[in-house]
């Protein structure tokens, strides 16, 4: 029984990233044609489509594991997080494209915040599951230290101005404007680094493979979201900016991690056929 | 010791570590087997077929939080098969 990456994983990941690329390319073309409503619609609803597919992949992976198993619990949390983001994105798209209103702050934020919480819980649980096998204290402390440094940088270049700004009287608006960058660091970047450092301790062990794309996805989430917050605050953001791709790639990578998990645990059809042939 | 194979000494310990290594890496696999040996008052190289239940129990305990039951069972079946 040896792990390998299946054709199904490569195919579905290809579809996810291909769809993300197609959405972004279409948005760039529509921006060039100065069709604002069209590129906003394609950008918003295109992202919903990519994240929806990612959510289905991750949840399907979680449900392929037995009831009561630890792996099912933390992949369900991660899948739930992706699903929450999808719902948030759908609401955002509806408000922005159909109603023509500014979606921030709004109902979608409940789901975006929920995504951060579930992602943090799921990835943290997964990383701690390795504690009987490898030392997890050093990875956790290292991840925490790096995150604190990034939080300091974020405070210096963004948060202190957001907090000091008096032109935003709405407490909810300001609260979210401070929450998201901090969540990027402590609820996305920190667990990403933690699980990456834990997976590193497994060397080439295949049970660590799923966590590399998941960790990269969370780092991308942190960078994209914090990057967007910085650009938006400094009025440097424009539609079609490269950060727009970040959210789609994030969820594509998380879904890829789920697909790799199915491969390494031998739950794919290819693996089953391989085992049957080996047994014959 | 289990026996000799083509002049090379093989043991339950080395077999189990070899089977576990592709999944959890060399260090973790080695640590798992050595920890089991230590708990039985033995060394890595003196684990024998009578220690398979203890080794299986320890491996299952380590792998259950990170892998599905069917996968863990398949790995243990490979270890137990190699010990015969």
Topology diagram in text:
The complex is a heterodimer of chains A (280) and B (84).
Chain A (H helix, E strand, L loop, with lengths): L6 H26 L3 H29 L5 H29 L8 H22 L8 H28 L6 H30 L10 H23 L9 H22 L4 H11 L1
Helix pairs in contact in A: 1-2, 1-8, 2-3, 2-8, 3-4, 4-6, 5-6, 5-7, 6-7, 7-8
Chain B lengths: L2 E3 L2 E3 L1 H28 L12 H12 L5 H15 L1
Antiparallel strand pairs in B: 1-2
Describe this structure in words.
The complex is a heterodimer of chains A (280) and B (84). Chain A is mostly helical. Chain A has helices at residues 7-32, 36-64, 70-98, 107-128, 137-164, 171-200, 211-233, 243-264, 269-279. The longest helix of chain A is centred in the middle third of the chain and has 30 residues, at 171-200. With 84 residues, chain B is mainly alpha-helical. Helix content of chain B is 65%, strand content 7%. In chain B, strands 1-2 form a two-stranded antiparallel sheet. Chain B starts with a strand and ends with a helix. The chains are: A mainly alpha (280), B mainly alpha (84). Chains A and B meet through helix 3 of A and helix 1 and helix 3 of B.
Oligomer: heterodimer
Radius of gyration of chain B using CA atoms only: 12 Å
- What is the general shape of chain B? globular
N-to-C series of helices and strands of chain A: HHHHHHHHH
Structural class of chain A: mainly alpha
Rounded Rg of chain A: 20 Å
Average pLDDT reading of chain A: 92
Distance between the termini of chain B: 12 Å
The major beta sheet of chain A can be summarized as: none
């Amino acid at each position: 029984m040896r792990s390998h990456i299946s054709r199904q994983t490569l195919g579905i990941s290809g579809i996810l990233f291909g769809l993300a690329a197609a959405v972004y390319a279409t948005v760039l073309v529509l921006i060039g044609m100065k069709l604002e409503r069209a590129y906003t619609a394609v950008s918003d609803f295109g992202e919903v489509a990519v994240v929806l597919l990612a959510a289905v992949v991750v949840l399907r992976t979680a449900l392929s594991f037995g009831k009561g198993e630890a792996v099912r619990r933390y992949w369900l949390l991660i899948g739930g997080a992706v699903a929450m983001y999808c719902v948030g994105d759908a609401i955002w798209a509806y408000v922005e494209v159909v109603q023509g209103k500014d979606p921030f702050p709004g109902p979608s934020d409940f789901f975006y915040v929920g995504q951060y919480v579930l992602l943090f819980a799921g990835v943290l649980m997964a990383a701690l599951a390795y504690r009987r096998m490898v030392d997890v204290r050093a990875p956790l402390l290292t991840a925490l230290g790096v995150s604190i440094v990034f939080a300091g940088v974020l405070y210096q270049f963004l948060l202190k101005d957001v907090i000091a700004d008096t032109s935003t009287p709405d407490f909810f608006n300001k609260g979210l404007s401070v929450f998201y960058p901090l969540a990027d660091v402590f609820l996305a970047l920190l667990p990403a680094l933690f699980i990456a450092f834990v997976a590193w301790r497994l060397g080439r062990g295949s049970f660590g493979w799923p966590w590399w794309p998941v960790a990269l996805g969370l780092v991308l989430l942190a960078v994209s979201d914090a990057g967007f917050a910085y650009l938006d605050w400094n009025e440097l953001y424009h539609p079609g900016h490269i950060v727009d791709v970040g959210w789609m790639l994030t969820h594509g990578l998380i879904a890829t991690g789920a697909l790799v998990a199915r491969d390494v645990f031998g739950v794919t059809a290819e693996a089953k056929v391989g085992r049957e042939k080996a047994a014959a | 010791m289990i026996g000799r194979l083509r002049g090379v000494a093989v043991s339950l310990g080395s077999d189990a570590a070899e089977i576990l290594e592709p999944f959890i890496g060399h260090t973790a696999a080695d640590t798992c087997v050595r920890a089991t040996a230590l708990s039985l008052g033995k060394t890595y190289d003196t684990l024998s077929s009578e220690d398979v239940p203890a080794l299986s129990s320890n491996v299952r305990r380590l792998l259950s939080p990170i892998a599905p039951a069917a996968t863990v069972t398949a790995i243990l079946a490979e270890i137990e098969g190699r010990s015969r």
